[in-house]
């Protein structure tokens, strides 16, 4: 393992107080301002998620409005459009992570929000499906507000409050996702599909302005040779980090398989084309609200009992209820299953982010979250593409089944990985004690 990167084991329970005290890193001057920075970053992230989720309830209908006809074609193009941003984000996220660790996390948050403001506004001017897909790809290159904000907050938060802070940031994501779809659905039903994109751009510009003037970051770039400043290969060499990236990819894939065709599924259950975007937005808002409550609650619990068992529990429960949602016959039934799914899914991100933060030194946060964002973006990119193809081939219920199966498999993989990794850690610790004892006898 590279020198200077010895850290708590990913997913392990909190260290005993005496061990934690022994390995505690020097206090970062930014920690004096962590509460204020967290509050400003929280509001900015909330607004950005309202903006990005504003357009999601009507993407398939906007595609239909751009000239794509037939349910199968609309489902496929919806998957392609959403896939575009995920795949380009996977390519650029590690680069932004490197820039973040060299030039500051605050600048990267501003880049993602101001860049998103321009691109989202331009989407409302699309003349055909190809322009929309191209702009979605550009969105993936320039945005990534969540990973940038997570790297910023993680770098200024005391380690003992990481679970709480990351849970709060995840709550901002889900709270924004709760308000955005509902408002976007109402706006599109009353004013058409193009105006909401302009409103999205304004919200993102305002969010970036909040970061510009209210977020404090006393950033001093560390020399590349300094211990604790991890390059991409050094971060990947941290024990267990590659498996964490794989977990992020699989989880992200599972959560978005049904996303591009969900409005079409709601339309079928309603048996009408009137106010479908509003209903879709309302259902997603309720699910996101439950996810936000779950995020901050489970983040606190994870700080006390450890994060690994919570990750396994959340992915298992969300997988089961996704499969059950495939068999609903009415909107009230769908709402009920989405509520439980949202609560279970809401706990996965803060738990995963806390595990990553525990495994990586502060100097490598930007690179680590850049890599995990890239890993997640692969899942976000491929999931909608697979979901659209499944819906086109086997019907609108199949993506829910695929989501459930994937998430249950993720929970089994996570449980196996954490168990094996813990045994390896205990074995290495035992060998270290033997070596120390032998050195003592030799002296």
Describe this structure as you would to a colleague.
The protein has 443 residues and is mostly helical. The protein has one domain: MFS general substrate transporter like domains (Growth Hormone, Chain: A, Up-down Bundle). It is built from 18 helices and no strands. The model is unreliable at 1-26 and 225-230 (pLDDT under 50).
What is the CATH homologous superfamily assignment? Answer: MFS general substrate transporter like domains
**Count of DSSP-assigned helices:** 18
Please indicate the percent range of residues in DSSP E strands (runs of 2 or more). Answer: under 5%
Number of domains: 1
The CATH class is: Mainly Alpha
Runs with pLDDT <50, length 5+? 1-26, 225-230
- The N- and C-terminal alpha carbons lie at a distance of 27 Å
Largest sheet: none
CATH architecture: Up-down Bundle
Q: In one word, what is the shape?
A: globular
Number of DSSP strands?
0
Q: Would you tell me which CATH topology applies?
A: Growth Hormone, Chain: A
User: What is the structural class?
Assistant: mainly alpha
Give helix % range.
over 70%
Which series of helices and strands comes N to C? Answer: HHHHHHHHHHHHHHHHHH
Task: Report mean pLDDT, rounded to a whole number.
Answer: 82
Cα radius of gyration in angstroms: 22 Å
């Amino acid at each position: 393992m590279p020198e200077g990167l010895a850290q708590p084991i990913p997913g392990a329970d909190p260290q005993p107080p005496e061990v934690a005290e022994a390995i505690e890193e020097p206090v970062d001057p930014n920690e004096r301002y962590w509460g204020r920075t967290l509050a400003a970053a929280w509001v900015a992230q909330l607004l950005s998620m309202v903006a990005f989720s504003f357009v999601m309830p009507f993407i398939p209908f906007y595609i239909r409005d751009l000239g794509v006809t037939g349910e199968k074609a609309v489902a496929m193009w919806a998957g392609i459009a959403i896939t575009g941003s995920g795949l380009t984000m996977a390519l650029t996220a590690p680069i932004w992570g490197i820039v973040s660790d060299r030039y500051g996390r605050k600048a990267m948050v501003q880049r993602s929000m101001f860049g998103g403001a321009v691109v989202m506004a331009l989407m409302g001017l699309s003349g055909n499906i190809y322009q929309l897909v191209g702009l979605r790809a550009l969105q993936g290159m320039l945005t990534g507000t969540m990973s940038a904000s997570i790297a910023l907050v993680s770098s200024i938060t005391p380690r003992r409050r990481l679970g709480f802070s990351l849970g709060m940031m995840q709550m901002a994501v889900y709270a924004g996702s709760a308000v955005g779809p509902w408002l976007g659905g109402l706006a599109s039903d009353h004013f058409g599909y193009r105006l909401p994109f302009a409103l999205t751009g304004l919200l993102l510009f305002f969010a970036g302005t909040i970061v510009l003037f209210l977020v404090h970051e006393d950033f001093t770039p560390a020399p590349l040779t300094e211990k604790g400043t991890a390059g991409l290969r050094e971060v990947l060499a941290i024990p267990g980090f590659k498996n964490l990236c794989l977990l992020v990819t699989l989880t992200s894939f599972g959560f978005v398989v049904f996303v591009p065709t969900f409005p079409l599924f709601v339309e079928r259950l309603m048996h009408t084309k009137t106010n479908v975007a509003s209903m879709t937005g309302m259902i997603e808002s309720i699910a996101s609200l439950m996810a936000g409550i779950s995020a901050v609650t489970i983040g606190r619990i994870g700080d006390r009992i450890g994060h690994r068992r919570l990750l396994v529990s959340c992915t298992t429960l969300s997988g089961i209820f996704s499969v059950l949602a495939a068999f609903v016959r009415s909107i009230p039934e769908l709402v009920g299953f989405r509520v439980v799914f949202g609560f279970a899914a809401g706990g996965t991100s803060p738990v995963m982010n806390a595990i990553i933060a525990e495994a990586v030194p502060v100097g490598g946060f930007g690179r680590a979250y850049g890599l995990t964002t890239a890993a997640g973006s692969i899942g976000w990119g491929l999931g909608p593409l697979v979901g659209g193809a499944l819906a086109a081939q086997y019907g609108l219920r199949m993506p829910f089944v695929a989501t459930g199966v994937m998430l249950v498999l993720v929970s089994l993989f996570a449980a196996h990985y954490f168990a094996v990794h813990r045994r390896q850690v205990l074995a290495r610790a035992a060998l270290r004690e033997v070596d120390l004892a032998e050195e003592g006898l030799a002296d």
